[in-house]
Write a structure and sequence with these properties.
globular; 8 helices; alpha+beta
Amino acid sequence: MFNRTRCLQITAALASISLLAGCGLLSEDDGDESKRIVVGTTSAPSTLDPAAAWDGSWELYRNVYQTLLAFPTGSTKPQPDAAQSCEFTDAASQAYRCTLRKGLKFSNGEALDSKAVKHSLDRIKTINSKVGPKDLFGSLEKIETPDPLTVVFHLKTSDATFPYVLGSPAASLVAPKEYPADKVRGDGKITGSGPYVLDSYKEGGEAVLSRNGSYTGFANRRNSGVTIRYFAESAKMVAALKAKEIDATYRGLSAPQITELQTPTRSRRASRSSRTSAPRSATWSSTPRTRRSTSSPSARPLPRSSTGGPSSPRSTRAPRSRCTRWFPRASLATRRRSTTSTAPRTWARPRRSSRTPGSTSRST
């Protein structure tokens, strides 16, 4: 059974960490814009055309294609990328309007306008690839382009998750002149408007990317380019990482491999922790302001209070019972024995007597 909501959650997580634009060494703090990085992965693209892929190919798409919305690193909420703004225009969430940024262009110089957006998404349904992302657009009825910078999506039913679809690589924008409307592009090239352009690609080998000088979007590139090396086995990728043949890895690592790579760091942290932390070897005894070692046989646990927690070590008075708390210094039974009347004395107002007028009673 197709679970669209679950797929969108995975899409958000994948898209937010697969963008390499902010990487110096997959870090936005120490990036060197003149440095080229090498990234290893086991997710080789099945095709370079986004209309026919819903798999690990999305890692590459995020870096060479642009979408109307996108997920910045670490974010699970889509934000404008090729679009300047996007919003639902009706209360039923069936009309979604996007306004494009001005001056957007594909890497071949072709304008990225509303017609290019319509062409990119319409061809997904037209091609109808069995392994493509067409199922993600099941709620889309039609696309209107009132002007070059405005795109309106009309939905069949209310769909609040539609912005997440537009933020995924499934909605990658392609140049109309290079991508046929009714078939998959098969020349092994990419024409997009993303942060990078594809310089060369060797199937099962590597993809060489360089910065796109005409890119306009949210990504802040901190390197001069990226080389993505594809590995058939994760063991070979780990060996390349240890040999410093690659700078980082993305996906494809098993839990034991991750533990092995993290072991030196964990050992150093454990060593520092053992030198700086001291064991707790003493506890408070029942005697106020006295501290005794836990190894002493005379050490006793802290007395418990009526609320269940430890009582204050300054207090040695026994807790008062609930009964004596309401009667000062003497119980009700003692008061009864000390009176001369046979009737018990009470604290409540006496009831009106039912005796006849003129009768008397003994007084205390």
